[in-house]
Specification:
Layout lengths: L21 H14 L7 H11 L1 H24 L2 H19 L5 E2 L1 E5 L3 H10 L6 E2 L5 H9 L4 E9 L2 E8 L4 E4 L4 E4 L5 E5 L10 E3 L7 H10 L7 E7 L3 E6 L4 E3 L5 H15 L6 E5 L7 E4 L1 H19 L1
Parallel strand pairs: 2-5, 6-9, 9-10, 12-13
Antiparallel strand pairs: 1-3, 4-5, 6-7, 7-8, 10-11, 11-12, 13-14
Helix pairs in contact: 7-8
Subcellular location: Cell inner membrane; Membrane
GO cellular component, one term: plasma membrane
Family: Belongs to the FtsQ/DivIB family. FtsQ subfamily.
Length: 319
């Protein structure tokens, strides 16, 4: 190629004072290369996007967070003592207004199923000033108070048409138990049915005495049923050592029963009484604790008479 055919090059003059130096150009090039945005997401952005795609976190952020904010604001508002006092006063006034409505009024109390004395005890146990709102009555607590009365076996408390209806099942006294310093009525299972100051009015009930006698009331009733012809002579049953019974008869006679099978032992005494009139003689104690045979204890007069007869018999034998 000849010099004529070569392309012409444009020569541009650059002032060295206004043009950047080589070092400046390299720094600018490095800066541009670092400032260029990276098209791939960062690690933090990637994790946030993955969390946002999780349904649980999305629900928490969209629903849970606003609810938490609202709850926090409400709690902060009601933490003020003045607000709390106003709220309590409003609730109390509303409750009082509802309780005092006529349809909730209870005007009287009716006690059914008990004697006059027991009904009086029930009214004394739950004193009330009528009318009273039914919303203020705790029926379970009233029932518990009524059943705490000795003479009440069970009770039911109901609200019926503005009436507090109390239905009770009264304990039926079966025995009179004499304690160390007082008298008690007990039913057939030994539960206390009342406290007595004197026995008047209950003379027809059998008497039991001794520590723990009331806990064996059912056995005492079986003994009384087995006494047969001796029933009219029985003055009481005495519990001895919390183990066994003594049958106390009139004329100071005592039947000592064993620990085991006392009813059968008493039936043997009844049989001897019918056959030989055992208790019609000068006998003070019939001891059945041996179990094999009765042991008799005679009166002092009978013992003297026995000694006299033996002396006569011995004198006749010597002659």
């Amino acid at each position: 190629m000849s010099a004529i055919d070569m392309p012409r090059q444009r020569l541009v003059y650059r002032d060295p004072d206004t043009q950047p130096s080589y070092t400046e150009r390299m720094e600018r090039s490095a800066h541009q290369s670092t400032a260029r945005p990276d098209p791939s997401p960062s690690r933090i952005k990637y994790r946030l996007e993955r969390i946002w795609l999780t349904p649980l976190y999305r629900s928490l952020i969209r629903t849970g967070l606003p609810i938490a904010i609202v709850v926090g604001l409400v709690a902060n508002h009601f933490s003020d003592p003045v607000v709390q006092a106003r709220l309590a006063e409003s609730v109390t006034n509303a409750r009082t207004m509802i309780e005092n409505r006529p349809e909730f009024a209870v005007n009287l109390m009716q006690v059914q199923g008990g004697s006059t004395s027991v009904s009086k005890q029930v009214r004394e146990a739950i004193p009330m000033v009528f009318p009273v709102s039914s919303l203020q009555l705790d029926l379970a607590a009233l029932k518990e108070k009524i059943e705490a009365i000795d003479a009440v076996k069970s009770a039911g408390v109901f609200l019926r048409g503005g009436v507090l209806d109390v239905e009770i099942v009264e304990r039926v006294p079966a025995l009179v138990w004499r304690g160390a310093d007082h008298l008690e009525l007990v039913d057939k299972v030994g539960a206390r049915a009342g406290v007595l100051e004197a026995r008047e009015g209950y003379l027809e009930l059998p008497l039991i005495l001794g520590t723990g006698a009331q806990a064996h009331a059912s056995e005492a009733l079986r003994l009384l049923a087995a006494a047969g012809p001796l029933s009219d002579r029985i003055r009481g049953l005495r519990r001895v050592g919390e183990r066994r019974w003594d049958v106390m008869l009139d004329r100071g006679q005592i039947i000592q029963l064993p620990v085991a099978h006392p009813v059968a032992a008493l039936e043997r005494v009844v049989a001897l009484q019918r056959a030989r009139d055992l208790l019609g003689r000068d006998v003070t104690v019939v001891d059945m604790r041996d179990g094999r045979r009765p042991v008799l204890r005679l009166t002092a007069a009978a013992v003297e008479e026995l000694h006299r007869l033996r002396a006569i018999a011995d004198g006749e034998s010597e002659t």
